[in-house]
Amino acid sequence: MPSKNPWSFALGRVAGIQLQVHVTFAVLLAWIAIRTIQAGGGWSAAVSAVLLMVAVFFTVFLHELGHALVARRLGIRTLHIELTPMGGMAHLERVPEAPRHELFISLAGPVVSLAIALVLFVVLKVGDHLFDFEEIFDPARHPLAAVMWLNLVLGLYNLLPIFPMDGGRVLRAALAFKLPYPEATRVAARVAQVGSIALAIVPGKFNLVFVLTAVWLWMSARHELRDVRERHTLRPFSVRDVMVDEPITLSTGDTLKHASSVFVSTFQSEFPVMQWDSVAGVLGFDDLLKGLEKHGEGATVREAMRRDHEGIEVDSKIEEALSKLNENSEESDSVLMVLDGEKLVGVLPMSNLRELLKVQKALNRAA
Ligand SMILES: [Zn+2]
């Protein structure tokens, strides 16, 4: 699956899972090198500092790989693992809702980090290279000790019961053994919000990084709660229930002049573009305007259409459509082609799902 994040580049595959690295990571390495040289460390110290950081992030990658491999054993694919200077993230194709599965997947990462710390501890103890946490970045010390300390902190920090950290997911899974899933999420999200405030206050003095982390955690907890609620609200519906039946279509050979007249005389805002019997692209209103500016009204729809359209089977669950549409959330009105086998039977715009969600919310309030 191609990256949806234009600021990440693919570095390769491990166990069939793509590793993506955010460009700011390169900036971080450059910054570390420059700082080391400025501090009078010289080139070799700069190279060591950069290698140390790469080693640390390699163990962060192993943490994420732990999540991904356990998820795979439980039948959930990982789309890719992303590394940013803020940490790693394994993007699973779906959220595991069986509490037992979420528990195992969430614990796998911290277990890997703690195991790495333990192995390094033994190695360093044998070689008599252990020292205090305060000396962690002292270049006179053994570099592996820094990796050990950071993995210990990473493993324990991630076990704090704060969404979206692993411990928050463990808590939700534990609650979900007893409570319905949305309710378990609601309780875990509340705990996460209290916990994120505590994280900002506990250091005692104002620390911008802690406050920003707390804000980010708070928002993530809210986001997760909204996501879960939406998925549950939409659960009873299939794509067939919500799609626009028999959509008006355009052909690749139609002129933009013809397309313009179709746009202004109908309610539809995204048009499948057909070539013979299959969908070759999609033309939205913005695509039409861009095409008109660039090529004039005599040009064909083929020149103006987008080709990145995605299809979905007509009997799929709405949840699946929602995650596909959310993946393309940068576009204001993303749309899915609804297919019955090879045949186009409808279109499903994000705006329809939003309307359905609002209708269900109003009904819930009335109940
Ligand atoms: Zn993790």
Give a structural overview:
- By secondary structure, this protein is of the alpha/beta class.
- The protein has two domains: 8-234, no CATH class; 239-366, CBS-domain (Roll).
- 56% of the residues lie in helices and 16% in strands.
- It has helices at residues 23-38, 42-73, 99-126, 143-158, 166-176, 181-201, 208-234, 239-242, 256-264, 285-295, 301-304, 318-327, 350-366, and strands at 8-14, 17-22, 78-84, 87-92, 244-245, 250-251, 270-275, 278-284, 310-313, 335-340, 343-349.
- It has a four-stranded mixed sheet with strand order 1-2-3-4. Strands 5-11-10-9 form a four-stranded mixed sheet. A three-stranded mixed sheet has the order 6-7-8.
- The protein binds zinc ion.
- Zinc ion binds at residues 63, 67, 109, 158, 166.
